[in-house]
Amino acid sequence: LGYLTRTKDHKRNLPAAYFIDLATWQRINLVYTAKAMNDLRQIRYEAERADLVDRFIHVVEHRYGHALAGLVERAKIALTDQSSAEVKVSLPGACFAAKITRAGLEETIHGDIERVTATVTQTIADAGVDASAITAVFLTGGSTAIPLAKREILSMVPQAAVIEGDMFGSVGLGLALDAQRKYA
After folding, report:
1. Does any domain span residue 31?
2. 11 lies in a domain?
3. What's the per-residue H, E or C state across 38-49?
């Protein structure tokens, strides 16, 4: 869709903000504003690959952002068990495919994983427990299925048994139980 492509003068990359908004589930609606559309048309004018930005504009004009995000999410889930996957976009007026790899995903999320492991390390320290005393780790949430995340977390407590919950429902259930406890 034009992310990280260059301007016609080759002096810089296209501005990334709208691409990031389109890739962030809770920010997708922000690209549907009149201001965003005007900015995208200006970006298209400056783009070396206007055809890619045209695709982006088409996705925005037809409000396909969440549909596109769903396709990417399915491909990301496929990377749990496969080394590569393909995002096949077949939306009216926007048909293309993009290959993604587990290595590329891991490179992209490496900093996030470092922050998670730092938080786990701090939590263990705050609890005053030695990591070797932890006998079980409950993995929940879709991100814990990402092989790099799982590997890094478990490497911190290698003797712990792994307990896996409902990857996609347990976080919501936990939030609901906490809300019930606080507000009921």
Report:
1. yes
2. no
3. HHHHHHHHHECC
One digit per residue, the tens of pLDDT, for the chain of length 184 reads 888 899 999 999 999 999 999 999 899 999 999 999 999 999 999 999 999 999 899 999 999 999 989 998 899 889 989 999 998 888 777 788 889 999 999 999 999 999 999 999 999 999 999 999 999 998 887 788 889 999 999 999 989 999 877 766 777 788 888 899 999 8
Q: What is the pTM of this model?
A: 0.73
- Of the three residues 103, 124, 141, the one that is the final residue of a domain is 103
Residue 79 CA to residue 74 CA, distance in Å, equals 9
Is there a domain that residue 38 lies in? yes
Tell which residue, 157, 144, 135, has the closest CA to residue 109. 144
Contact at 8 Å (CB) between 26 and 47? no
Last residue of a domain, one of 58, 87, 103: 103
Q: How far is residue 88's CA from residue 32's CA, in Å, rounded to a whole number?
A: 23
Do 153 and 122 reside in the same domain of the chain? yes
Q: Are residues 90 and 131 in the same domain?
A: no
In order of 70, 82, 122, the CA distances from 23 in angstroms are 10, 22, 30
Residue 23 within a domain: yes
d(CA 166, CA 79) in angstroms, rounded, equals 18
Give kind and range of the element (H or E) at residue 164.
Answer: strand 161-164
